[in-house]
Design brief:
With 73 residues, the chain is mainly α. The protein contains four helices and no strands. 8% of the residues are buried.
């Protein structure tokens, strides 16, 4: 997973991740370009999930976001 995959529709993705893991805060999910390893580390620390689980969750919610956006057009 690279930064471009994470960057698209990030605000919607953030909301969906907070629904999945309620303990995440806006600060935990603050995305800075080029610092996605740090982002994964913050989510991992807060949730106790593996990096692979976090990547999978981000891909799932990102796919949902793209599907939702495409269905409204």
């Amino acid at each position: 997973m690279n930064s471009l995959e994470i960057k698209g529709d990030w605000n919607i993705t953030k909301g969906k991740l907070k629904q999945k893991w309620a303990q995440l805060t806006d600060d935990d999910l603050q995305y800075a370009e080029g610092k996605y390893d740090e982002l994964f580390g913050r989510i991992q620390k807060r949730t106790g999930q593996t990096r692979e689980d976090i990547e999978k969750a981000i891909k799932e919610v990102s796919t949902d976001v793209n599907c939702d956006c495409n269905s409204t057009k």
